[in-house]
Amino acid sequence: MSATTIHNFSDIDFDRPGKAHYEVAFHHDGTWGNVLVPLTVIVGARGPGKTVACFGGTHGNEYEGQVAVWRLAQELDPAELTGRVILLPRFCTPACDAGTRESPLDGVNMNRAFPGNPRGSITYRMADFARRFVLDRADVVLDIHSGGRILRFPMCSSFHEVADGTQQQEMAAAARLFDTPFVMVYASAMASGLLTDEAEAMGKITIGTELGYGEATIRQGVRHAEVGIRNTLRHYGLLAGELERARPEGSPPPRIVRAIRLEDYVPAPISGVYEPTAEPGQAVTRGELVGRLYDFDYASSRPLDIRAPRDGWLLVIPFAAQVEKGQTIVVVAEDADYSAPNPLP
Ligand SMILES: [Zn+2]
What we know:
CATH architecture of the largest domain: 3-Layer(aba) Sandwich
Order of helices and strands: EEEEHEHHEEEHEHEHEEEEEEEEE
Radius of gyration: 20 Å
Helix content: 10-25%
Strand content: 25-35%
Number of domains: 2
Number of helices: 6
CATH class of the largest domain: Alpha Beta
Structural class: alpha/beta
Bound molecules: zinc ion
Largest sheet: 15 strands, mixed
Distance between the termini: 36 Å
C-alpha cells in the first residue's frame, strides 16, 4: 500500500473509513526539499468511537516506540476497529534518520518544542502540526520514549500531576495498561515544551513511557509498547478482546511512584565517570550508596560516594559512564496512589 504525499495538511483525510498511509511534507529551512514524516490514519469500519494518537520517534535515538508503532500501522485492521487511530511511528523523522535525540536540521529537541510555531524552524513547525491536526483530534495520546544514551530507567509508563482530578485518576489507571513494573509520576518543572505537557493541558488522557536504554532496541521494551498500545485500544473500546499482561502471569501490578519535587533530581556534583552500585527499580533507603563518581583527572583521587536522598525506588541511573557536572544522576521516587484502579487481569 503506497503512501500519499501531503503538502497541505488539510488534505489528510481523518474521517474516511479504512487505512491510509501518508508522508507529510515539511519544507527544509535552508534549501529546496522536504522532510517526509510518515503518518497513518486508521478509521474503524465498526463505527465511531474514541481517537487514540500514538507517537514513536519523538526522540530519534529511542527505538522501541519506532518499532512498535511502525508495526502497528501495518497490522491494525480497520475491519476490526471502532473509532480512529492516528500513528506517527517516527515523528521527529530527521532525528530518527540520524539516530539522534535532537533534530540535526535545526538542533531542536522535539520534546521541548511544543506548542510549536507555524513560522518557526522545522521542528517547531512539525510540533505545531501535531498539536493542531493530531492532538486536537485525540481523546488519548501515547508518546513512546526510552532512556536514549544518557539515562536508564526501569521499564515504566509515566504522566505528570495535573489539576483536574478526574483526568488525573484516569491517567493513573490508563498508565497501568502498559504493564510495566513502575508507573512514574514526574516533575513538570524539570522541563517544558513536552508533547505530553501539551496534550495534558489540552485535557487529553496522556501517557508517556521509558521502555529501554542505550540507543538499543530492548525486546521487553517493545513488548510493553505493543501490549500497552493494544490494551489502550481495548480499554477505550476501539478493539474487542480482553486486556493482556506484558509480564508473566502472577507478576505484581504496576507500582505507581512519584518524584515531583525538583530536589528529587540529584545533579552530578562534578563531571566524571559513574559507577552504579544499584540497579534501576531497586528499593533503596536514605543514605544508601547508589553509585560512585570518579574524577580521573589526578592520580589517587578518591571517588565521590553518591547516596540515595530518601527512602524509595531508584528510578534513574546514568547509562553512559561519562556524566557531566549538573546532569541528573539519581532520582528516588516514593510510593503514590491516586486512587487509581488496576485495569489489568
Ligand atoms: Zn525520549
